[in-house]
Amino acid sequence: MVAEDPLFSGSWTLYKFRATVINDIWPETTLFTLIAAMVTTVTMLTKHDLGVGSTLLTVLGTVLGLVISFRTSSAYERYQEGRKLWSNISIASRNIGQLIWVHVPVERVKATDPIANDADKVRAERIKAVIEKRSMVNLVQAFAVSVKHFLRSEPGIYYEDLYPLVSFLPRHSTTSDPTQHDVLPMWLEHEKLSQSARSSTTSLPSTGTSPRKHVVRKDSSFSNYEKALPQVVSEVPLQPSRLPPATKFYDYFPFLRILKPIWAIPRFFYRRLTGRKKMVDEEAGIRGWTGKIKAPPPIDSNVPLEITLFLHSYVAFVLRSGLAQPAVATALMNNLGSFQDTVTNLERVRNTPIPFAYQAHLRMSLWIYLAVLPFQVVTTMKWMTIPGTCFAAFMLLGFLEIGQEIENPFNYDENDLDMDSFCASITRELHEITAHPAPDPSSYVFTHANQPFAPADCRHAEEIITDVAHEYHAPQRGMDSIKRTLLRSWKQVEEVTKDC
């Protein structure tokens, strides 16, 4: 995602150039510029005057500008809504991770249990509890990753950033003599991938549901991210975390696509002379005639749903076992419900584009307006009609294309949301939560490093507790002395910081 201004922040690069809409609007801009050139040349160099009255120019231009503005604003609202919904996933992930890690106890052996006096068994139960909680936190991380692949129309779980987090989940509905008919929905894709792996062990498995071809490459940042995941052996080759369409030479120099048919002629005769068969066009079905990458078709994915089912079953287990208070379980259920609501809303944003009739009518109206524009301004602008029409087409078509590009912000376009970074951020936060052992507060509160009453009283906590001769420990006025100290601390802080 390109979020910085290339003109005033950083340097201009080809990657940032691809984030513009020049790649997408150059054929139309060129067409209307040629029309303007034709009209201007005929009017200026011949006796035929192609100029017409400009009465409709002002009226139609104003209306068309308002409609394009509404189109762009509607698309940007969808873009912003997608970002807000991802924030909901981040918030719910933090909450669930903290609730599981802090509020679900590790000490589960009661004094009345038969193994209470066996230190080894008690220690083993404690380790099992930590493993259990950490595994559930990994599922919270896997939920965000599965939503990312779902929104990008990448079905299944066989990805290097998802499979290691869910590989331990059960695969069959029964544990006694499982058959192919007992495979759970999440793992149904396994059969297709296994068949693909058996037929070709050197190529990556294809999911079979999306016609898009992907280039198998990873940038350094996400290679490092995958190193932070569990090292799990898969029965089929795993696909990379990112599967963007291959970047072609013409993506950086879009105007050279005009020459592509010319280069195809010598390639055709070369194949005929060498006896080679016609090569399959790898871009077929991926790009339109202008070279613009098409959005992948939506898919139905049950992976996020099944992950939440396992998290719900864990909450039910915690309640049945009496390991958490009802308030904690309620908070867990509310955040899991937030997961479900967020996925539904994200699916709504992705699968409900602006109606085609509206888009088609708006684009046709804009084409007609730009085609008629040179006839209305050639009388007054003369030769300036050509650059004027070019600029008008560039501006209006650009805004229209921006609205169409950002209305689905979940793909691999340079202006789409950086969901990989969002997932990496959730991963870091969950690991930071589980890095804290959640010890008894008494083990770190009453130490030399803690000065609770500063700045009025800079003694450390342990000294305050052991100094029984201090006025804090007086039987009648001890608490009053503490309150006065806290009031003095407030006054000192207020005085020192009021000018900051």
TrEMBL record:
Annotated Low complexity bias: 199-210
Region (Disordered): 195-216
Keywords associated with the record: Cell membrane, Ion transport, Membrane, Transmembrane, Transmembrane helix, Transport
Gene Ontology MF annotations: chloride channel activity
Major subcellular location class: membrane
Highest taxon of source: Eukaryota
Annotated InterPro entries: YneE/VCCN1/2-like
PANTHER family recorded: UPF0187 PROTEIN YNEE (PTHR33281), VOLTAGE-DEPENDENT ANION CHANNEL-FORMING PROTEIN YNEE (PTHR33281:SF19)
Protein's UniProt name: Uncharacterized protein
Source organism of this protein record: Sphaerobolus stellatus (strain SS14)
Taxonomic lineage: Eukaryota, Fungi, Dikarya, Basidiomycota, Agaricomycotina
